[in-house]
Structures
1.
Amino acid sequence: MFGTFRSPAAVYFGCGQRMMLGRVAARFGQRVLVCTDERLAADPVFAALVNDMTANGITVSVFDQVLPDVPVTSVEAAVAKAGETEPDSIVAIGGGSCLDLGKVAALLHTHGGRQQDYYGEFRVPGPVLPVIALPTTAGTGSEVTPVAVLSDPDKPLKVGVSDPHLIPAVAICDPELTVTCPVSLTAVTGADALTHAIESFTTIRRPLTPGLPLDRVFVGKNFLSDNLALEAVRLISGALPAALKNGSDIELRSRLMAGALLAGQAFANAGNAAAHALQYPIGALTHTPHGVGVAALMPYVMQFNLRACIPEFRQIGEAMGCTASDDPEADAVAAIDAVEGLFRDVGIPMTLGELGFAEEKIDWAAEQAMTAARLVANNPVPIEVGDMAAILRAACRGDRAALAH
C-alpha cells in the first residue's frame, strides 16, 4: 500500500461556513487582500463576507479585476496591489481563475520575480503568503490543489505552476455560494470535476520508491487518492443532472461541491493525464471552456486507455450505478458509455468538431499536447504523439471504435 495526501491545513465544508471567514482570517493577521472578479465584488453576499472580516478587526483591501484564464496583466496588477497593502493573507473568492490568481499573487508577493520564473514543478523556493480559498463553483478544485493555471501571451498554450507550497492554507467550501451558478456553468464545472476524479483514479501506478512524493508533485495512482476519486465519481454523477433541473436544491449543490472538493484532493496528489494534456491545444484553438474540452475528450481517452484500466473502469461504472456482470471488459466499456451518456445529457458536445476544432489542426494539437509532460507521464498507457493524433481524430469524427485495441 502506498498513499500521499497533501491538503490545506484546514478544510471547512458546509452550508453557512463562509461566515467563519472573519475569524479564520484574523488568525493570520489584521490585513487581508481579497482577490475576486468584478461581478462577484458587486454581489451582496460578497459584501457580507467583507463586513464579517471588518467586524473581526481586519483591514480589507479588494482586488476585483480577476480575468478569465488569469492573464499576465491581471497577475501583475494583483501583485502591485499586494505591494501597496502588505497583506498578512490573501482571500481568494470565486471560480478557478480567482483562486489561481490568489495563489500566484501570494507566491510573487512572497518570493518576487515574474510568474514565468515558476512555470513547471517544484520551482517555488518556500512557503508563500497564506491563502484562504472560497470557491463559488463546484469544479476546478483549486481550493485544495498545488496548481495554478495561467495565460501567457508568449506561450501558445496555458501554462502551470505546480508546487505543494501553492496549496491554500485554508479552504472554506460553502455550497450556498454555488446556488446562483447558472445552469451552463454548473454543467461545465461539474463535468470538469468528474474528469478530475476519473483521471486521478486511473493514472499510472508508479513503482514504489522512497521519496516518490519528494520527486514528483503528482505521484500517480495511490490508495488515498483512489478513495477520494471514487467517492467523487459517485457524488458528481448522482447529483449533476438533477442539479441542472433544480439549482436551488441545496442538497444537490452540496453533493456537487463535495464531489468537486474530493476530486480536487484526488488529483492534487495523483495527478491528471491525457485528456487534460489534449485540452490545452483544443482550448487554445477553439476558445472553449476547459471543462467542456476535457469532458468532450474523456470518453475517447478512456477508450484508448481501456486495456490498462478494466478493473478501474468497472469500479467507476459501479459508482455511477452500472450493474456488474461476469464480463469485466464489457463492464468497463459500459462505464465509458455511462460517462459519455452523462456528459451528453448535461450538454457537453460529443465531438471536437462541435467545439470548432478542425481536423487539419490534429498534428499541431497532438504535438502541443505532448509538451504537457507532467500529464503525459501520468497516463496509464504510454502515449506518443501518434497516439495523441489518433485520439483527436476519433474525437473529431465521433468514432470511439477507432481506438479499440
Note: Strands lie at 10-13, 31-35, 59-63, 89-94, 120-121, 131-135, 147-150, 159-162, 170-173.
2.
Amino acid sequence: MDIQQFNRGLLSFIDASPTPFHAVSTMVATLTKAGFVRLREGDSWDLVAGERYYLCRNDSSIIAFVCGKQSILDHGVRMVGAHTDSPCLRVKPNPDMLEKGYLQLGVEIYGGALLNPWFDRDLSLAGRVSLTNDKGELISVMIDFENPIAVIPSLAIHLDREANTNRTVNKQTDMPPMLAIVDGDELNFNDIVIAQIERQHSDVSVSKILDWELSFYDTQPSAMTGLRQQFVSAARLDNLLSCYTGLQALLQADGEMTSILVCNDHEEVGSSSAAGAQGPMLKHLLQRMCQTTEDFARVIERSMMISADNAHAIHPNFIAKHDGNHGPQINQGPVIKINANQRYATNSETAALYRYLSDQVDVPVQSFVVRSDMGCGSTIGPITATELGVRTIDIGVPTFAMHSIRELAGSEDAFGLHKVCWQFYNTSDLPWC
C-alpha cells in the first residue's frame, strides 16, 4: 500500500463512519473480508494459533487480533489502542421543539466539542435506534439520513455587534438544529425516525420506537486540501484516523506475534463505561488468552500498548500556546506525548522503544509537552496502563482544530504512524521479553 492509496482509504473510512456504531460496522466489514472470525463474549472460545478474530461490545467498541504463532508467555502481545467516538451533538430523548413554526431538536453536547464551527453547516443525522417490530421482537438498527436535513443558523452580525469580539455559545439555547418549517402539520421526530428506518431497512416494520443514540454530523466530504494537497481535512480525525491506521497495520501483520487492535467508545467523556477503556473488555480478552493468573501476569510484563490519539500541532497564528521546544509540526512525523503528571502514559522506556521502531522504518518522530502553565488533556493510555499494568506509550498524529466539526492533519503523518505500528506488530522481541 502506498501513501496515496492509504489516504484515499482513510477518507472513505471517515465518510462511512459518522458515528461509533458506523465506524465499528465499517471495520467489521473490512475484517470479515480479510478472513477475521467473529467471537462473542458469551460463547466458549477455542483460539487457534495463526488465526484472526474480532469481537464487539455495544456495537461501538471493537477488538481485532491476530492469534500469533509464537508463545505469548515468551513474547507477550503487541497492542495498539484508539477510540471510535468524537465530540458531537446528540439528540435528546424528547427532542421536539417548535418555535415560530420551525421544527427544532433539543441536543446534548457529547464531549468537549468546539461549538462555534457547528453553525451554518449542512448537517445530517445517524446512529442506533432500538425498537419493537410488528412481530413484537426487540431489535436495534443503524440509520443514517446521509442528506443534509438540518442546520444551526448563526445570528446575523447586525443583531450581535460583538459577535467577532465577545461571542459565547449557550449549549441549551443556541445549539438546537432546525429541521423544517411546519405550518400547522403534525410533524414530529419520532415519525421522522420511523420513516427513515422503513426507507433504509425494508425488512423492518416498526411497531414502536423505544430509544435512540443519534448524533448530528457535517455532510461535507473528507478531502485532501492545500495548494500542494499536504493536508487531510475531515470530521472525526480525532480519533478515526488512529482507528484506520491501526486497522491497516493489523491487516498487514505477519501473524508471528499476537497482535491486538482495540478501539473503544466513550473516550471523549472519560472512558468510564462497559465499552470504554476503563471497562473490562480488553482485560477479559487477555485473561481468556491465558490459562492462569500467573500466565496473565507474565504476559503483561512482556507486552506493550501504543495508545494512538491525535496530538496538538503548533498553530502558526497561536505559537504562544505551545512550549517553545515542543511544538509538533504537520508532516514532520507522529508525536510522542509526554506529561510528568501522568496525563499521558509515556515513560522513557516506552518512548525509547517507539523511537527505535521509527528508526527501523525511517519515520521521523516529534515530542509534545504542554506548557507548564496550561492544563493537559488525556487519553486511553493512562487508563489502560492502570487497568492492565502494561507498559504504554501515548503517541498521535499532529492536528489542527481538534474537537472542531472539521479537523486538519497532514497527508504524510498518518501513513508514517501506520508504518511504525506495522513494525511494532511484526517485531519478534521487545527489550523486556
Note: The two ends are 31 Å apart (CA to CA).
